[in-house]
Amino acid sequence: MNDWTSGYVTDIDYTFGYYNELNPLRLKLAFLNAGLVPPEVGTACELGFGQGVSANFHAAGSMVHWYGNDFNPSQAAHAREMAEASGVQVELVDDTFADFASREDLPEFDYIGLHGIWSWISDENRAHIVEFIRRKLKIGGVVYISYNTLPGWSAFAPLRYLMTDHAELIGADGHGIADRIGGALAFTEKLLATNPAYSRAHPQLSDRIKRLQQQSPHYLAHEYFNRDWTPMRFANVMEMLAPAKLNFACSASYLDHIDEVNLSTEQRELLQTLPDAQFRETVKDFMVNQQFRRDYWVKGIRRLTPLKQFEQLRAFACILVVPPSEVTLQFPGGQGEVTMSESIYTPIIDALVDYKVTTLEQLHKKVESDVSFPQLVQAAVLLTGLGYLAPVQNAEKTALASEPTRKLNLYILDRARSNSELPYLVSPLLGGGIVVGRLQQLFVAAVIDGNHTAKKMANQAWKLLESQGQNLMREGEALTTAKENLAHMQHHAEEFTKNQLPILKALQIL
Q: Which tens digits make up the pLDDT trace of 277-317?
């Protein structure tokens, strides 16, 4: 019998994740910062779209015509349901990679994205993907690809194989994957408790297993328990992509663009002695013990002149997407805690607190007495990488995306009435999604219904939860009385009104 799963876990649902790295709008700043010509994206494709959340958000939020495949028919059905809700034209099918690569009715693409696929499929399927890219990526087109990386997985990989062996060989017949995952983790913990030489050589593994035990089995099943699971060196991936004529462009992880955040002075000096850009990426992976890469590759790399780079950076438009109170000047970097310069970053954040779209040229005029333009560009890259800033599309595209994003958000808000599986909403300004938790979604629904005060928002949201026998949590404890729940709900509503509501309005979600 033909095994249509190809060894991929299908008896437990994939997570309903949204991945903004797949948003083509994020290409621009990364390419401009690297001195590369960013593509104009009109057609795009997501290979292995999972539940279809990202593909639908990006299709509804932009004028890009999206295509995609996922071999799992249940996931493809969910993706199509979302597409029907927005009314947007998006072509989502349940073809295998082999079938999708052989289709003759697909256009050429400006952009092809793969998130969480490359490391979890067979060599045969990777070959199908490369052939698809070779045939269907336009000259000048970009591929986004993420994958598990060596050397970061070197220590843990043997334990992963041990856990999958346990799940397959020892796990009880007739038990679902969730039970077998639990048994494999429990056994691995017992093994490490015997203090084997392997764990003495890698003492961090015990804590890692404890963290895994706290993860959702839905995540663990698809992350660790597929038949195929292959961390790779950057050089391996480069060699595999060569038949598609792809060159490495730059990292899609914005923080990777700033060596001062990740590398010591000695490490940066060593990298500067290496003439080969590809080899530098491999060396950097050793320096930071890279576990997961997010990369842009391009078919026909083109470099900007310094003048063109400067002009296009000045025209780059962005917006603040978090309350200023959530912006912290400290964050973990490759060499430990990184502290951003208060004299540079505080004026920039102060200039963005009105939540208005601004170009870097406009922003620089507000802060030029404190911040040079090169410093501003680096700050924009860093703040975007930390999730504080986001790129925006022009007013014409935003207006055209307004109706499909409104419809898709109504669909999500309806689902939030009973569960929290989709904690995102889509913005026509961002051309993609932003995290909005279930309670905040209930408040958004209340505002749409005309309840604009925190008290009215809280009342509507609590009545909905109460009708389903659901209670709020406070400091890890479930609240038991209606009075306690309503008071705590109003506290959340007041925080929402103060912090999130102005941002959702600025992003044209409300």
A: 889 999 999 999 999 999 999 999 999 999 999 999 999 99
- What are the C-alpha distances in Å from 231 to residues 19, 121, 236, 304? 20, 11, 10, 33
Question: Counting every residue, how long is the chain?
Answer: 510
Find tokens 């004529």 and name the residue.
Answer: 245
Q: How far is CA 364 from the centre of its chain?
A: 29
Query: How many CB atoms are closer than 10 A to CB 358?
Result: 21
What Cα–Cα distance (Å) separates residue 25 from each residue in 252, 377, 430, 486? 12, 17, 8, 40
Tell whether the model's pLDDT for residue 476 goes beyond 90.
no
Please tell me the number of Cα atoms within 13 Å of 290 on its side-chain side.
Answer: 26
Angle, vertex CA 145, rays to CA 141 and CA 151, nearest 5 = 140
pLDDT digits (tens, 9 = 90+) for 408-452: 999 999 999 999 999 999 999 999 999 999 999 999 999 999 999
Helix/strand/coil for 337: strand
For 265-396, where are the E strands, in sequence order?
A: 292-298, 317-320, 330-333, 336-339, 358-359, 389-391
Going by their DSSP bridges, the two strands 330-333 and 317-320 should be labelled as unpaired
DSSP strand pairing (43-47 vs 109-114): parallel
Residue type, 482: A
- Rounded Cα gap, residues 175 and 166, in angstroms: 13
pTM: 0.89
Buried b (16+ CB within 10 A) or exposed e, 459-492: bbbbebbeeeeebbeeeeeebeeeeebbebbbeb
Question: What are the residues whose beta carbons fall under 8 Å from the beta carbon of 291, sequence distance 6 or more?
Answer: 148, 149, 152, 153
Phi, psi angles (nearest 5°) of residue 122: -80, 165
Mean per-residue pLDDT for 23-29?
A: 96
Name the strand (E) or helix (H) holding 422.
none
Instruction: Provide the pLDDT confidence category of residue 10 given band limits of 50, 70 and 90.
Output: very low
Give yes or no for a contact between 71 and 6, defined as CB atoms under 8 angstroms apart: yes
List CB contacts of 441: < 8 A, sequence separation 6 or more: 412, 413, 416, 423, 425
> Which residues on neighbouring strands pair with residue 268, listed in sequence order?
none
Axis-axis angle for helices 205-213, 177-193 (nearest 10): 150
What is the maximal distance between C-alpha atoms in the chain? 71
The encoded tokens of residue 487 equal 């008071």
CA–CA separation, 281 and 289 (whole Å): 12
The alpha carbons of the chain give a radius of gyration, in whole angstroms, of: 24
